[in-house]
Amino acid sequence: MSGRPPRTALIDRIDEVVRPRAQRVQQALASPVRNARMTVVLGRLLGLAFVICFATGIYSHLLQSPVSWISTPSRPEYLYGWTQGTHVVVGSMLLPLLLAKLWVVYPRLFAWPPLDGILSVIERGSVGVLVATALVLPVTGILNVLQWYPWDFSFRRTHFALAWVLVGALLVHIAVQLPTIRRFWSKASMTEADDE
C-alpha cells in the first residue's frame, strides 16, 4: 500500500479541472532561459553571495559582541572596513540575483499537484523560508545603510538571527536539490537543460 491517501471523486474532479489549467500557465510562462541549468548557475552565484555575506556578518558580529573563547583579529585597522564594504556591496547584489532566480523558477509555482509526498513538502517549506529571509535580509540591510528604520525591532539582532535561519533553509534546499545541482553543474549539461 502506498503512503498516499485514497483518491476520492472530489480529488479526481479537482485534479481534472486544475491540471490542464496549471499546464497552460506553465506553457505560457515557458522561456528558453527558464531551465534547470540557468537555475543552477544563478543558485551558485546566490550561494556564493550568501556565504560571503554570512562570513563577513559573523566577523562583524564577533567584533561588536566578542565571545571569550574566540579570538577575532581586529588588525590591520582597515580589515573591518573592507569586510563591511564587501558585506554591503555583495548584500546589495543579492536582490537582483534573487529576483533573477525567482523569475527563472516562477513557473514551478504552478506545478500540479503542488505537493507530491514528504520531500516536496520539505522542499516547498524550505523554499518559502529561504525566499522570505533572502528578501528581508538585503532589504533591511539596505535600509540600515540608509539609516532608516521603519520597524520597532533591533536591526542587528534580527539581521543576525535571520542570517542563521537563511543558512539553515539554504542547506535544506541544497540537500533536496542536490541531484539536480549535480546534474546541471557543468556547461556540458546545457543541451540537457534545453531538452527539458
Please count the helical segments: 6
| Morphology call | elongated
The radius of gyration computed from the alpha-carbon positions, rounded to a whole number of angstroms, is 21 Å
| Helix content class | over 70%
Q: Tell me what portion of residues adopts beta-strand conformation.
A: under 5%
Sheet/helix structural class: mainly alpha
The termini sit apart by 32 Å
Give the beta-strand count.
Answer: 0
- Biggest β-sheet description: none
- N-to-C series of helices and strands: HHHHHH
- Average pLDDT, rounded to a whole number, is 85
Poorly predicted residue ranges:
none
Question: Which short descriptors sum up this protein?
Answer:
196 residues, mainly alpha, 71% helix, elongated
Describe, in short, the structure shown.
The protein is elongated and about 65 Å long.
Task: Spell out the blueprint of helices and strands.
Elements: H1 9-28, H2 36-64, H3 78-105, H4 118-145, H5 155-183, H6 190-195
Helix pairs in contact: 2-3, 2-5, 3-4, 4-5
Structure commentary:
The radius of gyration is 21 Å and the shape is elongated. It starts with 8 loop residues before the first helix and ends with a helix. The model has no long low-confidence stretch (mean pLDDT 85). Helix 2 packs antiparallel against helix 5. It has helices at 9-28, 36-64, 78-105, 118-145, 155-183, 190-195. It has 196 residues and is mostly helical.
